[in-house]
Design goal:
The complex is a heterodimer.
Chain A lengths: L11 E10 L2 E11 L4 E5 L6 H9 L4 E8 L2 E2 L5 H7 L1 E4 L11 H8 L5 H14 L1 H5 L10 H13 L5 E5 L7 H16 L3 E6 L2 H7 L2 E6 L2 E7 H6 L1 H7 L3
Parallel strand pairs in A: 3-8, 3-9, 6-7, 7-8
Antiparallel strand pairs in A: 1-2, 1-4, 4-5, 9-10
Helix pairs in contact in A: 3-6
Chain B lengths: L1 H32 L6 H17 L4 H24 L7 H23 L15 E3 L2 E3 L1 H23 L1 H11 L1 H6 L4 H27 L5 H16 L4 H21 L8 H12 L14
Antiparallel strand pairs in B: 1-2
The chains are: A alpha/beta, B mainly alpha.
């Protein structure tokens, strides 16, 4: 989309995306752009289609209309594993551990698409980021606490060396102190240059760290703007911030 | 007395090794797809039948074994590609019915190609029994137990040490997460059919000199493998091996001390007891988690 060379094309460009569950339409034309190095938040109520959008972006749910362009390539119909190889990685809702397998196995599987030698280096970076994971490296992932599982889920997604990280409700079910810890890790990643699309029900937390935000309602993006501006937006404040 | 019990033990472990391999095949495919593959017994039959036909045609035994295993692995792959994969997102029960259909089809083909009779493969290394404390042990029994043990070790290494093996386990534990880390779960399913078919073929080849083979041996040995897998806990590798050995031993002891007429009844009495009293088997824990 960069005709003039002034505006760089976004890393992820989603236009008019539609999906169905059986005959029921879940997304009614979602349009989202994520620029390189930015942290974009997508907020909305339960059932608005946030998780469906991320699942469709990752290719584990089929798009029935619209386009997903990643790094200039149309990936609307690409297989999920090829999207991981091209640089999209998702931290799914509910952590989705390989429960009986060790923390270290979970991390190594995150690097399934990468050379084995590289995954040895990556794992050191993840342990530096979340030291508790190194302490529990041999423990089955299913026995970790919720917060530790969320860290492991983020770590596993980072092991594939993504260029775009999709985060689905990382604060879900966590105590406030842990939410703060997870969010500071996300902010640190963004500062390090990672491009992030963050989906959250916790609109306050998400919009206050985001460069840009979208509000999604019943499968459509209805409001968009800079994160800080959205926090001041009356409609957003009423509907999502309880003010 | 001791020699007699020992004799039953040998015979139990020999058959148990085959049940264990069969049970491992069931568990592998169950883990990858939630499907009970009722064509598992046909893989065993085809292994034996292929090896018999090849050696009868003058192919040297080691080469015949190799070709038989390759052919059956290919049959496993084709079963997945031509029957399971086209069914797409069909539910598990439909897929199970497809495997029953495939089983009948493979038996029919084998009956036409191989003929209706029973035939034996020559023992790998002679048939002079070795006497141990008064009990006799056939060299072929040692081949069966040894091969079973070797395969269990190879599988333990594959699933415990290699990335591909761990990816297959990961797919069994959480298919969504597996897809999200970039594992092609379709390939995992196809691979699980190939490995299960190869396991069956090996079991069929090493047992053919003792149990004889014909187009219809697959049904019984397949069902017993299923019982062994259920006894050990469907989806558990350790469970499949332990279940297979327990089943083989129980069968041999019942045949020896009660009556050999009841030998084939043992697995079916056992499965009723298992389903009543411990539906998850010895090592299975995830029965309710599967969707």
């Amino acid at each position: 989309m960069s005709e003039d060379g002034q505006v760089p094309s976004p890393l992820l460009d989603v236009s008019d995306l539609c999906t169905h569950y059986g005959r029921i339409q879940a997304l009614h034309g979602v349009s989202v752009s994520v620029h390189r190095g930015s942290l974009v938040a997508l907020v909305g109520a339960n059932g608005a289609g946030k998780t469906t959008l991320l699942r469709t972006l990752s290719g584990v749910h089929r798009a029935t209309g619209g386009r997903i362009v990643f790094d200039g390539r149309d990936i609307t119909r690409a297989r999920a594993d090829l999207r991981v190889r091209s640089g999209i990685s998702q931290v799914p809702e509910g952590r989705q551990m390989f429960g009986p397998m060790s923390v270290e196995d979970n991390l190594n599987l995150g690097a399934y698409t990468r050379p084995i030698a590289e995954s040895r280096r990556s794992i050191g970076r993840i342990y530096a980021m979340f030291p508790v994971l190194e302490e529990r490296r041999a423990q089955p992932a299913g026995t970790l606490s919720g917060g530790q599982q969320q860290m492991l889920s983020i770590g596993r997604a980072l092991m594939s060396q993504p260029r775009l990280l999709l985060l689905d409700e990382p604060s879900m079910g966590l105590a406030p102190q842990l939410v703060a810890e997870i969010f500071s890790a996300i902010v640190a990643l963004a500062k390090g240059g990672m491009t992030i699309l963050l989906v959250e029900q916790n609109a306050q937390a998400a919009l206050s760290v985001a460069d840009f935000g979208y509000v999604i309602e019943t499968g459509k993006t209805v409001i968009s703007g800079r994160g800080r501006d959205l926090l001041q937006d009356d409609r957003v404040r009423q509907a999502y911030l309880g003010m | 007395m001791l020699s007699q019990t020992l004799q039953y033990f040998f015979s139990g472990l020999t058959n148990g090794a085959i049940y264990a391999l069969s049970a491992l095949g069931f568990s592998l495919i169950y883990n990858a797809s939630g499907v009970i593959n009722f064509a598992q017994g046909e893989f065993i039959m085809l292994g034996g039948v292929c090896a018999v036909m090849l050696t009868a045609a003058g192919v040297p035994l080691p080469l015949a074994i190799l070709i038989a295993v390759l052919v059956v692995s290919l049959v496993g792959l084709m079963l997945e590609k031509l029957a399971i994969e086209p069914a797409g997102d069909a539910d598990v029960v439909s897929l199970i019915i497809i495997t029953i259909g495939a089983s009948i089809f493979l038996q029919g083909v084998a009956q036409v190609v191989f003929g209706p009779g029973q035939r034996a493969l020559a023992p790998f290394t002679g048939d002079a029994p070795i006497m141990i404390f008064g009990a006799s042990l056939l060299p072929q029994s040692m081949w069966m137990m040894g091969t079973g043990a070797l395969i269990v070790l190879i599988l333990a290494w594959f699933f415990g040490r290699t990335r591909l093996g761990k990816a297959m386990l990961a797919t069994a534990h959480n298919r969504l997460a597996a897809r999200l880390v970039g594992i092609n779960t379709r390939h995992v399913l196809a691979l699980s059919f190939v490995i299960s078919a190869a396991l069956g073929a090996v079991a069929g080849v090493v047992s053919a000199p003792i149990t004889l083979t014909s187009y219809d041996v697959g049904i019984m040995v397949g069902l017993k493998g299923f019982v062994a897998a259920t006894l050990g806990g469907l989806g558990s590798g350790l469970g499949a091996v332990v279940g297979g050995l327990i089943l083989g031993l129980t069968e041999a002891l019942a045949a020896g001390y009660i009556s050999s007429a009841y030998k084939d009844a043992v697995p079916f009495v056992l499965i009723i007891l298992i389903l009543f009293f411990m539906p998850r088997g010895l090592f299975g824990a995830r029965a309710s988690e599967r969707v």
